[in-house]
Write the structure tokens for this entry.
Amino acid sequence: MKTNSVLLAVAFALVAMSSPVRADDPPEEIKKVMTELEKDAKAIEAKIRKEMQARMEKAVKQMQDVEAAYLKAGKKDEAAAAGGVIKSLQQEIFVLTAGIKVLENPGILTAYRGKNDEVFYFRVTGSTDGEVWGTGLYTDDSPLAAAAVHAGVVKKGETAIVKVTILAGESSYTGSTANEVTTSEFGQWEGSYKVEVVKAEKK
């Protein structure tokens, strides 16, 4: 369920308005109009973001009530499914309010090697496929979707936003089995990453 594709489309479309096409050296009168346009576009975008956040938070509360009703009725599977949707929507709220850029899953992280301590957010569908090296810290050529499942950040088949921190290479990596994913040990490697859950912080 891609909640952001519907709920965020209008707000993110407004971003383009904040950077209108510019002439190389427009007259002062044109600059003034363009400045006013940018100011108004930012104000409109902020208003829509706030309104969407409120609506999304209302939806979360409604879903939580449904989840509680399922639990009370002993419908564990339905409650678990509702909980997954709630988690996804809470992540979307966090991303919206924090202004975080979410990237699509790059597969492996070797393209980010050297960006040590930098944090990136990726939308990932959990998988148990692919060879992974490490535990907690993974070699940057380990598939993110499988490493995220191994780390318990996302379930197999579940789509979620994950937080990834790029780290320097390690002298060795330890293998282990967790959440249906078995990782391998490895020696020295040039780049690493860790993957964590994105948590919606309450204000």
Q: What stands out?
A: Confidence is low (pLDDT under 50) at residues 1-8, 14-19.
